[in-house]
Model the fold of this input.
Amino acid sequence: MEKQDYDKIIHSQFEDIAIIDYGIMKGNETIVFIKAGQDGSMYGYQNKYLKMANIIHKKYGYTVICSSNPFDGTNPLNNAMEIIENYCKEQNFQDYKIFYMGHSNGALIGAWYGIHYPKIKRMLLVNGPLMYNWHKTKEGIKNFSGEKMVFVYGSLDQSFYYTELIKPLENEKIKLEIIEGQDHHFSKDTFDFKKLPESFLLN
Done:
């Protein structure tokens, strides 16, 4: 049965800038961390992130932590890693790992800053704008040392034509996937946004 809400909700003060909300669905030592797009909530449009968390938790037993994104240009992942570390201490997890998923600006945050956290083993970066600070995204790709980093773009997304920048950087860890007929928000019926983690992150 699908949960109506997260098991735990945390409202964390991020520096003097904003409150970041975290919804936690409790599971095992594999942490799936989902970062919403710019100004997105931990629930997402029509509860898409809560529904995604339910699917992942039910099938894999993973802990899922969904984060809002009042992003202002500074790195919010220190805050997120503190939340995750404290949760894992509470659960007595000795050797946890993190699978990161970010959409839009949440994808940029992952590409730019995720490489600084060794606990992040996999990254799924969906429709991150490529026309802004490409050098930061490129640096993140080149310095990624985890298991895999997958970039997913809809063919109708405004960044689709910039995906040629990623192709020369592909290797056994770095992958680019194109979803035909999808826009920035995956609003078309041809592909279910909630299936992205299972398709490109968890397996």
